[in-house]
Amino acid sequence: MTSCELAQDPDTAPGTVDRDEPAPDAVPRRSRRWPGRRAVGLAAGAVVTAGLIATITVLASDLYERRAVEHAEQQALAAAQQYAAILTSVDSAHLDENFEAVLDGATGEFKKMYSESSNHLKQLLIDNDAKADGKVVAAGIKSASRDRVEVMLFVDQEVSNKHLPEPRLDRSRIIMTMNKVDGRWLAGDVVVP
């Protein structure tokens, strides 16, 4: 066999590869191609699904937060209406009970201020034989979050004392900030503009 023949005979030529069999270190032809339509479709589906899940999560979180704030509004509004009636109703014959109820529904600076002024206020009410009966006629939410709600209340208050034996009707607007403290809605600020 000549060197030409050796070069043409794949079985005898050193370093030659049979063209019918793939070389052991050669990469199969399929893996060198671009991904097929199915793979692209699956990837696009995964991206769309991930986007939908993210959108649903954000919307669910937003809905949960809105419902939590709405629930806070309802609870704080009811507590503010009840507290406004307590705050604007007084009887000089039952001042200790009145003041105890006011302080029980208060918190923060308002509670501190009311507590500090209560002795002077008690004496003034006793000296004048004062009575008042407050009723909330309208109320609404001014602003709200989960643990702080600002409520505007309109209160009619019948007031009488030893100088004014016939009750007089006073109409007041009260802005009350309700704070959630240990599961209770308490008045943290009361403003009568």
From TrEMBL:
It is found in: Membrane. One of its GO terms (cellular component) is membrane. The keyword Membrane applies. The chain crosses the membrane at residues 39-60. It comes from Mycolicibacterium hassiacum (strain DSM 44199 / CIP 105218 / JCM 12690 / 3849). Residues 1-32 are annotated as: Disordered. Keywords: Membrane, Transmembrane, Transmembrane helix. This is Uncharacterized protein.
